[in-house]
Amino acid sequence: MPTLINLCEEPDFCLRFVNGGPMADRAVDSVRALSLAATAGGSLGDVRDALVVIGDFWISGRTSVHEGVEPLLRELSRQRAAGLAVVVGQHGAQSVPVVIRSSAVRLGVPLLTTTKELRDWHELIPRLREYRYRQAEWHADQLTALLNRLPDRLADANRDTDADTEAMRRIADWLAAAVDADVVVSDPLRGVLAAAPDILTRRPPRTASARTHTESLPLSAAGSGAVLSVTARRPLDDVRTELLGHAAKALGLIDRTRLRDQLAETRREVQLSVLQLLMVGEEVAAQRVLAGLAPGLLATESVRVHVIDCAREDREVALRRAEDALAGRALLARCPVFNHLIVVDPLQTDEDAPDGVRRALEAVVAALPGHCMGGSRVHALSGVADAYTQAAGTLLTARRLPGRVALAEQRPDLMDVLPPAAARRWAGTLLRPVLTLPAGQREQLVRTLELGLEFPHTAVGRLLGIHRNTVTHRISKGFGLLGLDRGQVLNRVVVSTALQVVVKYGHDAHSADPGVDFSAMVSAPEVRAWADSFLEPLRADRRDLLRTLRVWLENDTHTARTAAALDLAPVTVRSHLRAAAPLIQRDLPVGPDETEALDGNEHEQALSGVRPLAFALHAGTGRPFLPPA
């Protein structure tokens, strides 16, 4: 994500700092161009991480300026906006009234000036997305450049000191060019190991001052005192700081004696980064990053995702066996959340062949007691997040099978039977407030909602490489736009289903009557047949599990409230839920502490089992009622 400093460096935006200091590296997610009058009356909206541009502060006198700008700055400070830019005739602090400057400093809001007119900013706002795309491309290129300096060198078992020095020098040269800085790799006992520019090996590096920014990172070599020092001409943003971390790790690998093991670990870290890019739909960036490590591996349109659950066993044993069995034919990564391994199979070999990816993984699981594996259906490369959700959802079935392996296509899914035309109209109408956002915001929000409604927010944050609070903020924003209470399970069920429809089938224009489309969708013969098949194992049970599950959903999956409504003991309700889960081959949140005992940000249990159950009951029995829009 670009920072205020990045935008100031772009000539088209004509931005300069009035005050910035340590706040100058704030990330900018969006730009809002407004007149000062338009900000009055609490109409500012959501401006978190937004740069707000105002253009008419000088029209009134100083008193009016203070009365108009003070509430604006307070709101920007409260929401932690990226900053405030004011339109001026020429740059300089004297062009901004002192009341604005003093209030901005007091409230901790970065203040900038711009010589672009407000009407010009409305045309410039789309350029921010272009800039973000260029920055993502640059980041991918830099990671690829670093990788290109690793494989040949580190894979060479017959290394010598001169080769190690050359490898370090190449990485130092790359880093100096990437972050525009002086780079020195040094050790208290061995002196300077590498430096860039090369002249630094013969003179001291630039002395740190108020105009320079210095970072020092220890290399990752165990027991080594080697340090990477960087003296930059400008503050380092998050992207460049991340490059420093990657460089320090790479240099540390070269400095170790067991280089092959460390190369394997570097590859695993890169593969996890590639998986995270795929999870947010950045398949092009993922292909670029992986190209230097495994050329052509992701040059595919279709993939299948497998999830190996290592339970309480040592995951590293399964990882090494899987790496040997796959031999680079699939993307393999440690799950950053659970004790799982995630495999993205590019389907470049016959799956049923004895040496195919799936057969190889089945052999690994068979040789490791306590392990099981779930596989998704075939998805587009852009649908890895959906494939992962599907694969993880089959683990419950896999645990109960003799071979401990299950594939999603062994059972039809709700998405397979929905009539596409009615589903597209209904989903497009329900999600319209989200789908009509600018492209960058829409894609970000849809991806986060899609995963955030399937897994706990902490887990989603680790999968996507973002903070859990960011996940919670985005989900709250999405439900706020939709006008729905995210605390209600059936609301989450409906929204997650609509998201899956949009991902699989796309969406149509706004429908005049979404209720009619919803009724047509859930009453289609194919949906009713699917619901009957889904519920059939439950109907055969003498405990009337259907009634328990229906009332449980109508009571927001609260065990105590369900028990009271049915005049049963809570332990009986939990017993019914545990009995139902294997019958429908779905995971249901069962336990004494369930939803009501979890905190507000993590109370959304996985919907992979609840969603099809709710739709099957609604289509087959008419209850529970599902909100159509």
Describe the structure concisely.
It is built from 27 helices and 15 strands. The longest helix is centred in the first third of the chain and has 31 residues.
Give me some keywords for this one.
alpha/beta, six-stranded mixed β-sheet, five-stranded mixed β-sheet, 27 helices, 50% helix, globular
Total number of strands: 15
Label the structural class.
alpha/beta
What shape does the CA trace take? Answer: globular
Report the C-alpha radius of gyration, rounded: 28 Å
What does the largest sheet look like?
6 strands, mixed
What is this structure's SSE topology?
Layout: H1 4-8, E1 15-19, E2 30-34, E3 50-54, H2 62-79, E4 83-87, H3 98-107, E5 111-114, H4 118-148, H5 151-154, H6 161-179, E6 181-187, E7 191-196, E8 213-218, E9 227-232, H7 238-254, H8 259-279, H9 283-291, E10 302-309, H10 315-326, E11 331-334, E12 340-345, H11 357-366, E13 372-375, E14 379-380, H12 384-393, H13 395-399, E15 405-407, H14 414-417, H15 420-430, H16 432-435, H17 439-452, H18 457-464, H19 468-482, H20 489-505, H21 514-522, H22 525-539, H23 545-554, H24 559-566, H25 570-584, H26 594-597, H27 610-621
Parallel strand pairs: 2-3, 3-4, 4-5, 13-15
Antiparallel strand pairs: 1-5, 6-7, 6-9, 8-9, 10-12, 10-13, 10-14, 11-12
Helix pairs in contact: 2-3, 4-7, 4-9, 6-7, 7-8, 8-9, 10-11, 15-20, 15-21, 17-19, 18-19, 22-27, 23-24, 23-25, 23-27, 24-25
